[in-house]
Design brief:
By secondary structure, the protein is an alpha/beta fold. The chain contains 14 helices and eight strands.
């Protein structure tokens, strides 16, 4: 697995620049920029403020939120999030059910990206909340397969300030056995839009096949690494559809009004466990479609 990562990395000489532009996180999943705001963070704060003032919306019936790590210190905040939606009558659904749902239905699509051991540790929490989640998994860094050097490189691509602790393959099986959906997030978490066509099979099809071999079932849901419009292309989307992916998610926040309209372009809003419930709900109500179409970026700063 690490050999594929090395071969792919050799075709992405500017990956260090990409990481310099990406948000950095601590191991609890808190964006470092939020703890120490700089110019970029202040600019996005202004953009968010303007959109909240000029284009406020009601909370959508179909709502899609995503997370990364779920550290034990964040469990209470996660519980507050889920119990808020359940109190409003939302049910949690899989990607295909989210796409199929009527826009007036109160359904919540909850997903997680990357590969973290703390997902497995949080299974009792998910059971207690009675929710269905989708986990989009990178197939490279299983800790029962790869060593510390590979995991360290992977952690840097995620923008983590410290090395993460990924799942084992058996922990992934246990997550699936609990009834959650497992999707693919590519093999190594590179910017796929920067890779030559000959490497797509290894990073995408190969990852799909690895996860299928671990779980013994077809993987039909995919999530773009990094997830902004500039990180993928129409050709990549066509390729993913051709190899058997039925749904594809991005990470472009501020587009809940059209989340789930296109199964190959499902919009999700980043739910930030380091901020308040009301702040996150305000982000969900932003209509950032025009901003996303013009800039290819998320209106809330990812």
């Amino acid at each position: 697995m690490a050999a594929l990562e090395a071969r792919t990395a050799s075709h992405v000489p500017d990956v260090a620049h990409d990481l310099a532009q990406a948000p950095a996180y601590d191991l609890a999943g808190h964006p470092v920029a939020e703890r120490a705001p700089g110019l970029k963070a202040m600019v996005f704060a202004g953009i968010r403020f303007a959109h909240r003032a000029l284009s406020p919306r009601s909370l959508e019936g179909k709502t899609s939120i995503y997370f990364h790590a779920l550290d034990r210190s964040q469990w209470d905040q996660f519980r507050v999030c889920i119990e808020h939606f359940k109190g409003l009558g939302y049910r949690t659904v899989s990607p295909p059910d989210f796409v199929a749902a009527d826009r007036r239905e109160r359904c919540l699509f909850v997903s997680f990206d990357d590969n973290f051991r703390d997902w497995h540790a949080a299974l009792p929490l998910l059971r207690s909340l009675g929710i269905h989640a989708t986990f989009y998994v990178n197939s490279l860094p299983f800790r029962d397969v790869e060593g510390s050097d590979t995991i360290a490189r992977y952690s840097r691509r995620l923008g983590l300030a410290q090395d993460c602790e990924p799942l084992t393959r058996d922990e992934l099986r246990q997550i699936r056995a609990d009834g959650h959906t497992i999707g693919c997030h590519s093999h190594s978490h590179f910017v796929l839009g920067k890779l030559p066509r000959e490497l797509w099979d290894g990073e995408i099809r190969g990852s799909k096949q690895t996860l299928e071999a671990i779980l013994g079932e077809e993987i039909s849901d995919f999530s773009w690494p990094y997830g902004m419009r500039r990180h993928f292309s129409d050709d990549l989307r066509d390729y993913c559809r051709s190899i058997g992916f039925a749904t594809i998610t991005n990470a472009i926040s501020g587009c809940q009004a059209i989340a789930g309209d296109d199964p190959l372009d499902i919009y999700r809003t980043d739910w930030r466990l380091g901020t308040t419930l009301q702040e996150n709900l305000a982000n969900l109500r932003i209509d950032g479609r025009l901003y996303a179409r013009i800039t290819g970026r998320s209106v809330i700063g990812r």
